[in-house]
Design brief:
18% helix; 15 strands; seven-stranded antiparallel β-sheet; alpha+beta; Thrombin, subunit H; 290 residues; disordered N terminus
């Protein structure tokens, strides 16, 4: 991270403006903090780069500006990856689950089966060359997937070379407790920081509560609890968004979900929907082992 201007490149020419720019940054931070404390929905409208520090919500969940997220690092979450096409364009997220295997969403890979895909590991900043970009050599798409919201939205990618980064274990069928309402789950991605907003340059993370099936059902009539779970606050404000699909939903140190869909992003009463990994882990593990 280069948030401290003194450690950033170009510090010599920037020194003269440092005092003035620091004052502006301090004022901006104070303003954002005040707005942030006002309510969760404010996080949607402030959008931004994700560099803003967060305030604590009324329920004590830290948040700032995914939507409502804060900067996080692949140094701490080494299994969070993003997917690009041959031009380097980031279009989805994913999770490293074995040295040569990445779990992502079927809707990330099924629409363009001939597209060359690369998985980028160990790179927080999409504009940097940190970590590595590895070509995907095989793509498996869940056979039951037909469209978002219909069938199991999961895909397993095989990498052309193995990577040394730590992997994340999948939740299993016995991990039902992790899907209990109120479980604090983490979401990660480089997607949009507001509905219709632009993608984040940096990896962002946020915490959202897992919701009861009746709540998930109320805002998506097609909700099938054997295939999906949902997460989000009543008031919205914190959510995955476009470009985060395929990325991880994590609880208890395990991959419990895969970002799949939502109605807009971070809207009140509109949770995010995640492919349910636990109940479907046998099918996914079989592909990871293949
Ligand atoms: N389908 C989106 C994607 O391809 C993910 C949307 C998630 N939306 C939400 N509100 N949780 O990136």
């Amino acid at each position: 991270m280069t948030r401290n201007p003194a450690t950033a490149p170009g510090v010599l020419v920037r020194r003269a403006t440092l005092v003035a720019s620091t004052a502006v940054v301090v004022l901006a931070v104070v303003a954002v903090s005040l707005v942030g404390f006002g309510g969760r929905s404010s996080a949607v409208t402030t959008g931004g780069t994700g560099d803003d520090p967060g305030g604590a919500g009324s329920d004590g969940v830290a948040q700032a500006r995914i939507v409502g997220g804060e900067r996080t690092s692949t140094a701490d979450e080494p299994w969070v990856v993003y997917l690009t096409d041959a031009s380097g364009f980031q279009f989805c997220g994913g999770t490293l689950v074995a040295p040569t295997k990445v779990v992502t969403a079927a809707h990330c890979t099924a629409s363009a089966p001939d597209r060359k895909i690369f998985a980028v590991v160990g790179r927080d900043d999409k504009s940097s060359k940190a970590g590595r970009s590895v070509a995907v050599t095989k793509t498996w798409v869940s056979p039951s997937f037909t469209a978002v919201g219909s069938g199991l939205d999961v895909s397993v990618l095989t990498l052309g070379e193995s990577v040394p980064n730590a992997t994340l274990p999948l939740a299993t069928a016995s991990d039902t407790a992790l899907y209990g309402p109120g479980t604090a789950a983490r979401i990660y991605g480089w997607g949009a920081t507001s509905e219709n907003g632009t993608a984040s340059r940096y990896l962002l993370g946020a915490t959202v509560p897992i919701r009861e099936d009746s709540y998930c059902k109320s805002s998506a009539s097609s909700f099938d609890p054997t295939l999906l779970t949902c997460a989000g606050f009543d008031t919205g404000g914190v959510d995955t968004c476009q470009g985060d699909s395929g990325g991880p939903l994590v609880a208890g140190g395990k991959l419990i979900g895969i970002t799949s869909f939502g109605d807009g992003c971070a809207r009140a009463g509109k949770p995010g929907y995640y492919t349910r990994v636990g109940a479907n882990s046998a099918l996914i593990e079989k592909q990871i082992a293949s």
